[in-house]
Structure formats: C-alpha cells, structure tokens
Amino acid sequence: MKNSIVVQELSKVYKLYNNPQDRLKESLSISRKLYHSEFFALKNISFEVKKGETLGIVGKNGSGKSTLLKILTGVLSASSGNVQVAGKVAALLELGAGFNMEYTGIENIYLQGTIMGYSKSQMDERIQGILDFADIGEYVYQPVKTYSSGMFARLAFAVAINVDPEILIIDEALAVGDMKFQAKCFNRMNELKESGATILFVGHDVSSIRTFCDKALWIHQGEMRMFGETLEVTAEYMKYMNDDEVNEREIINHRSEDFNTEFEAINRWGSQQGIIKYVEIFNSKKEKTSLIKFGEKVCIKVISEIPKNIDMKYCSVAFSIKNKVGTDLIVSTTYDHNHNLSKVKSNVIEVNFEFENYLKDDEYILVVAIENRSNMQPEYYDYIEGAKYFRIISDKKIFGYFHPPVSQSISFLKE
Prior knowledge:
With 415 residues, this protein is an alpha/beta fold. 24% of the residues lie in helices and 35% in strands. The chain has helices at 20-28, 65-72, 105-115, 120-134, 149-161, 179-194, 206-212, 230-249, and strands at 3-17, 36-50, 54-58, 80-85, 89-92, 167-171, 198-202, 215-220, 223-229, 252-255, 260-263, 267-269, 276-282, 291-293, 297-305, 315-322, 328-333, 348-356, 362-372, 379-393.
C-alpha cells in the first residue's frame, strides 16, 4: 500500500539565548564562540503512514506533537531529516491558524480555498455544504474576531473536511466543540476515512483515539517513545501517565515489611484513626497496579490492626469506588456479606475484595474504611477517602458508568 506520509530521522532544534545581545555576539564572533544552548523540540522521529490509515498521536503537553504537525503542513521547517507528504493536505492546528481575524466567516472560507489551490467557482460548489456543517447562522457574515472558540472550531472544521482533502491533520481542535458537534465531526471523519483519506489526529482522549485510529504514535519530550498498534501504544501511554501522576503526588509510601503505610488522602477521619495499615490494588496477574482494564478481575487488599477494645462481632471492613465528583459507584462490606470477624483469632486482619471491573474508562478514587455496624447507621473507626487513585482503560467506547454483562435474546416474529 502506498505511503501518504514518510518521516525519517526528523529533528527540530531551537537555539536558546539568555539575552538578545548574545545572538548578535555569536553572529559577529571571529572565534565562532557559541552563546546559545540547544533545545530539541523533536529528535530523530521516524514513522510511516499508509494511504487511508488513521494515526493517533499522544503525549504530554510540550512533548512536540504540535511541532510535528506544523512541519508536516509546511508551517515550520525541519532542522534535519526528511519528510514526504503525498497528497492535498487540510489541517486544523491551533485555532485561528490561516484565518484573517478581520475578515468575515464567508471571506475566510474563500481565503482557505485559495490557500489550498481551489478557484472561486470550485469553492462556490462547496460553500453550502460548509455553511450547513458549521451551522453558525448569520455569524458567518460577521468578522471572525467576534467568534467564540466553539464557533471558530465549527467554521474551521467545516472548511477542512469539505475541500476533499487527501490528508486531514487535526490538532485537538475538537476539544472546544460541544458533544453534538464532536459526534458530527467524527461521523464526517469516518466518511473521509472510508473514502481513502489519510488522517492524523492529536488528542488527549485516549478512548476516542482507540475507537478511531488504526495506529498510534507516542511522543515524549521530543522523542518517539512508541509507534504501532493503537491499543498497545495507548495502554503503555496510559500506564506511564497514571504512574507518573502517582509518583508526582507520592500518594502512598508503603513499607511492606511492617505494613506501615502513610496515605496522602483527600480526607481521613474516625474514632480510631491509623488502624488501617495497608491498602493495595492488584490486577488479574496479581501485580500491584494503578491502571485497570475494563472487564479485568481486580483485587483490593486491606490490612488492618484492630484494637482489643473494639467488639469484633460488629466490626466491618468496607471499600467504595468513587468518581471524581464523589459519587459512590461500587460499595462492598464484610458485614453485608455476613463475615463475622469475631471468629478471626488474630487482631491483624487481611481482607481481599475481588470483582470483575465493568466501570467505564475514567479516573477513580478508592475509599477504605473500618466500620462499627452495631447500629443501623454505620460509625467509622477509620475512614480513608483517597486510599488509592487509579484509572480504568478500555479498548472500546463505553456508554454509561457501569457496563456489566447482559444476556440478550432475539426472536423473529411473524408479521
């Protein structure tokens, strides 16, 4: 299959000077003394995109994604390496790129057409489709400097996808649109994909990249960390991102030899704070994890040291999984499962909660508590909101927060 884009050993280097005078000193230096340091926005990037493929590009902010797209579209020149782009390119980079802010929406539509090599008559044939897709009404006759970011995105996207591009490049432009418009955009991009167009899509929404893209490229600090099948690349990227966030926050400092755990919790309270000694999440491979796959078997391990003055008959160990706004999504307790902890001979108790995860891909908070269930309303000896923080990933689009297996039957009835 023919390649639409070939990138070989691509690098982009910027010279950084401490002050403007250093640039002049360097240019006039007879001894060729250097007054600058080098910053590699991109370093030795190589990959190929076949005609008709869709490539998702991921990476932290500042990793070089936008720089790469600007080189591919000719906005920037490379410092070294080779770039081959075969086909007519339509690109949505940062909002406003290529638009004249003093022109009206209509005038900018024709301006974009001219930039792409279309005549006025050719744009006349496309103008109605562009207006219908943008759906910004009479604002199209107003200067674009008066537009909101959402209106700007609508118009820019409508132009880009209605000029029959052979290569479409999108740099997170959909993030400013509402959900209905984003769905509309993805439907149109699917149509372009089916027609054989090549698409490069930069985004932070991993679930959209997994749904839409054939391959993925992960760029980190200007270097290519991974390139290949979308699921494999995004899984490694999400694992890195989640582990990186955990390391930055230093959520838990665990010493396994004595179960002495310090929790950086959102909230911790109770009449016997400190009796929860250890909390960990394990995946189906029995590995500690902060990244859980949809449908994977999960184990939450809780170790606590119960003081002798607590009546074990009514003592219960509980966990809850909350979303980022604090809603309880899964709750389980030893009390509700009729486990009588008074039968346990040791006051150091290990409880393992095992379940198959059917929560959608998102970020979650783990709450762990030791309860007093002697009354209808539980009281808490130790309650930790934020014992762990974790993310769930899925290789398909999940609608709704909880998606358990559902049996289905289909019958064909006679008319």
